[in-house]
UniProtKB/TrEMBL annotation:
GO terms for cellular component: endoplasmic reticulum. Keywords: Endoplasmic reticulum, Protein transport, Transport. One of its GO terms (biological process) is protein transport. The keyword Protein transport applies. This is SIL1 factor. The keyword Transport applies. Residues 16-36 have a biased composition (Basic and acidic residues).
Amino acid sequence: QAVPAGSHVRLNLQTGEREAKLPDREHRESDTREERRRIRLGKVDVDANSFTSEELKKALDKMKESEKAERKVSFLFLKQCTVQGYVRKKFRPIEQLKEEFEKLNMKIETDYEIMVKLISKFNSSASTLDEKVAALYDLEYYVHQV
């Protein structure tokens, strides 16, 4: 006879019979991985000693239906919300940020723009040796980030 997963099975040496004991429901310490999975799924009656083929088919159908519904929802979400649309909603373009900061009398420069200025300062014949060394140190910092 089939025994439910998670049962404790032993062979009684005095009588020669096999004995099975259901796990303790109060402590839940003796539950096996299979038993915890069935409880988590909640699709089948876990207290039954055995399952009919109809019960198993119904449980499988319910699992397949819920899986299909999850796939449809995720597909529709991806279809409605493309990656570009998501990024556009979450972030603003750099040009818009620059305009807003200019209104606040703040000039925001990208790393690229700063690096171009540092290179031109280094190549300038009007720059002193200290300015060129400082430009190289700053340039090293920005290049390291890239």
